[in-house]
Amino acid sequence: MITLYGAYGSPYVRKVLFVLAVKELSFEHIQQLPFTGDQEYLKINPLGKIPSLRDGDLTLCDSTVICEYLDEAYPDHPVYPADTADRARARWLEELAGSRVTEYAAGIFFQRFMRPRFMKQEPDEALIEKIITKQLPPLLDYIEARVPEEGFLFGDLTLVDVSLLCPFVNSAYAGYNVDPARWPRFVAFMERVKSGPVMKRILAEEAAALGIA
Ligand SMILES: N[C@@H](CCC(=O)N[C@@H](CS)C(=O)NCC(=O)O)C(=O)O
């Protein structure tokens, strides 16, 4: 039995939901929130971060570790490219998306969505302005130069495509959308990733759970 710990709205949890769905694996989803100091959860993940996953006796933390495990343990419907060089490129872009890009894009989400809702604090609009005008553009230029004009990065839709989208799902919840005039390929690419049946369903379920739909 697989158990996923992690709340809707996390860009990292979304990656794992995509892999579980593509592989048609049944699982129990525990809506674990981060930043709670929950002592029971700290026994599962000492960092207190989400997601974590249990598969039988195995407990894993970190979305990339979890997704790689699922891809190896359940090889039907692979979510990484088959070619070694392509896999390495995919892992790098997944790392980029999950580190600095998420820090900035989800930073907007944290300021405009999480702070008012959960901390009763005003967003730091000066910080958001810096993210939008200074910090994100060089990363968006880098991504724009790498995404394809049509289709996905490595043929069929894989996890790296979804990983690049995920931070911008969060920023969109907070009112920031990537400018299609400046980064047209990436915007069109994200629309393709979003419009596949699996992502459509995951995003609809998430938006409903967050009260955004
Ligand atoms: N590298 C981790 C990052 C996970 C992460 O930072 N998750 C956020 C939620 S979106 C979290 O749990 N933050 C709580 C914290 O940093 O204490 C992964 O890929 O799973």
Written overview of the protein:
With 213 residues, the protein is α+β, with helices and mostly antiparallel strands. The chain has two domains: 2-73, Glutaredoxin; 84-210, Glutathione S-transferase Yfyf (Class Pi), Chain A, domain 2 (Up-down Bundle), CATH 1.20.1050.10. Helices cover 59% and strands 8% of the residues. It has helices at residues 11-22, 39-44, 63-73, 84-118, 125-144, 159-173, 184-195, 197-210; strands at residues 2-5, 27-30, 52-55, 58-61. A four-stranded mixed beta sheet has the order 2-1-3-4, with helices on one face. The radius of gyration is 17 Å and the shape is globular. It binds glutathione. Glutathione (GSH) binds next to helix 1 and helix 3.
Quick structural gist:
This protein is an alpha+beta fold. The protein has 2 domains: 2-73, Glutaredoxin; 84-210, Up-down Bundle (Glutathione S-transferase Yfyf (Class Pi), Chain A, domain 2), CATH 1.20.1050.10.
